[in-house]
Write a structure and sequence with these properties.
Length: about 200
């Protein structure tokens, strides 16, 4: 470590720090460039220049949203009702009821759709400034009166779910729309015919 003055910052990339970390509003650490010999990082704390192993710079140089859990529901709560743009699922005595009613519906379809929401992980999280969404999804949780609302935002390549209450936007690939906004297809039940030479069953 070496003492350093303001006029000496430029050679170390500290006149315009790559990253600044502030503690308690008054303690500040500036991260500068790389020294060429051993590829260590220049760092300034108060009036002192430090040369440190470049081990953690990539962790602090990312966006603050990269530190957040990318799951829509990190705690995996119990969903009691899911209101999609074209379908509502309501849990009643262990069964998922649909509104409007779906022809040839299986409760397994409801379970799969709910699991898709519980275990969905966004590709990216970004800041969200609410606009006028075309559609909205409301998720009701057991033990909570008010639903969690997601604004549905689409473009050609991505599906985004915006939470205005958190100021966050969860981004998914466009293929995820089928998993989150549509009822999964019913898995057909296969009937296995007995072999032709099997003995006949007794009456």
């Amino acid at each position: 470590q070496y003492p350093i003055a303001e006029q000496d910052l430029q050679p170390y990339g500290l006149d315009k720090p790559r990253v600044t970390v502030t503690f308690n509003d008054n303690e500040r650490i500036d991260f500068g460039g790389i020294e060429p010999l051993k590829q260590r990082r220049y760092m300034r704390y108060q009036d002192t220049l430090h040369v440190v192993t470049d081990r953690f710079f990539h962790n602090i140089s990312v966006s603050e949203t990269d530190y957040l859990d990318h799951s829509l529901f990190p705690d995996k709560p119990q969903i009691s009702k899911l209101v999609l743009p074209d379908l509502t699922l309501t849990l009643h005595e262990g069964q998922w009821l649909t509104e409007p009613q779906v022809e040839d519906y299986s409760n397994d379809q409801g379970n799969e759709l709910i699991d898709n929401w519980l275990y969905a992980n966004a590709v990216q999280i970004a800041d969200y400034k609410p606009a006028k969404p075309a559609q909205q999804v409301r998720v009701y949780l057991e033990g909570r009166d008010e639903p969690i609302s997601f604004d549905v935002l689409r473009d050609a390549q991505a599906l985004s779910l915006g939470r205005a209450d958190l100021g966050l936007q969860y981004k998914f690939t466009s293929a995820k729309e089928q998993d989150l906004l549509k009822l999964p297809a019913k898995i057909p039940t296969e009937t296995i015919d007995p072999p032709a030479d099997a003995p006949a069953a007794y009456e």
